[in-house]
Amino acid sequence: MNDLFDLTGKTAVVTGGTRGLGKEIAKGLASAGANVVVIARSISEEVLTELSKEGTRILGLSYDLQDINGYKQLLEHIDGEMGSVDILVNNAGVQRRHPSVHFPKEDWDFVMDVNVNAAFFLCQAAGEKMLAQGSGKIINLASLLSFQGGLTVPAYAASKGAVMQFTKSLANEWAPLGVNVNAIAPGYMATEMNEALIADPQRSRQILERIPAGRWGTGQDIQGAAIFLASKASDYVNGYTIAVDGGWLGR
Ligand SMILES: NC(=O)c1ccc[n+]([C@@H]2O[C@H](COP(=O)([O-])OP(=O)(O)OC[C@H]3O[C@@H](n4cnc5c(N)ncnc54)[C@H](O)[C@@H]3O)[C@@H](O)[C@H]2O)c1
Question: Which CATH superfamily is domain 3-241 in?
């Protein structure tokens, strides 16, 4: 492993790291040498075994990230088990689809709670420790809908716009103190979150036709950007959102 991208001995936390993009990010960070803590509402032995194949230490924690008041205790627990957190990936996210005219308030609140509130306050809790140690890498999962409005997903678009913006806010405050805060905006990725889109033949075809790379993305497509933003290679990258989208935004 090139020294610039080597994560040996680092402790990474990946929220929602048990499936979809989060699982691939966790694998990617482990393949670069990091010990990885995955946090999700439920953890299976199968996933932990899969992640352990890279040979680094893996810890799975069942936790509902909507319990924001428990973050300090959660981080103390991680500190005790795996050492201080060097890398935080705020990957957990949720989606709700309804025409805006009928969008239910409870779904709006749910999406904002997980995608914005949980992500921001986990940045705050982990950031406090990173600032004390004078180093750290935070990677937030933004979206193409940080830039665009999407269709029938107003809460998700609002939430991902917020993620991109608070990533910049945190970077402005924390860059001088040794903590890098950046984001990744995945394009259309074939994960469970997009099952409804993939199952709709018309929308699925329209999306595919607009992707310059000519295919939907996969979790593996995100690994390079995640390793880059977690490593020394990105020490002078602050507050930026990297699109990994097969060219979608340039079109
Ligand atoms: N799939 C895409 O095309 C796409 C595109 C752009 C952005 N993203 C973003 O990337 C991230 C991962 O997406 P994905 O497609 O892998 O999603 P996914 O639905 O497959 O996985 C999301 C993960 O988050 C976890 N999670 C959700 N709420 C949680 C909570 N309250 N507590 C603990 N864990 C919770 C789930 O358990 C799951 O492991 C999300 O932030 C998503 O918005 C995805």
Answer: NAD(P)-binding Rossmann-like Domain (3.40.50.720)
From 71, 156, 236, 240, the catalytic residue: 156
Q: Is 156 a catalytic residue?
A: yes
The neighbour count for residue 214, using CB atoms within 10 Å, is: 9
CB 213 within 8 A of CB 246: yes
The pLDDT tens digits for 172-204 are 999 999 999 999 999 999 998 898 889 999 999
Are residues 78 and 51 in contact, defined by beta-carbon separation less than 8 angstroms?
no
- Give the residue whose CA is nearest to atom 39 of ligand 1: 16
Q: Could you state, in order of their start, the residue ranges of all structural domains in the chain?
A: 3-241
Of residues 57, 160, 56, 168, the one with CA closest to residue 116: 160
Give residue-wise pLDDT tens across range 200-239. Answer: 999 999 999 999 999 999 999 999 999 999 999 999 999 9
* Ligand 1 pocket member 41 (CB < 6 A): yes
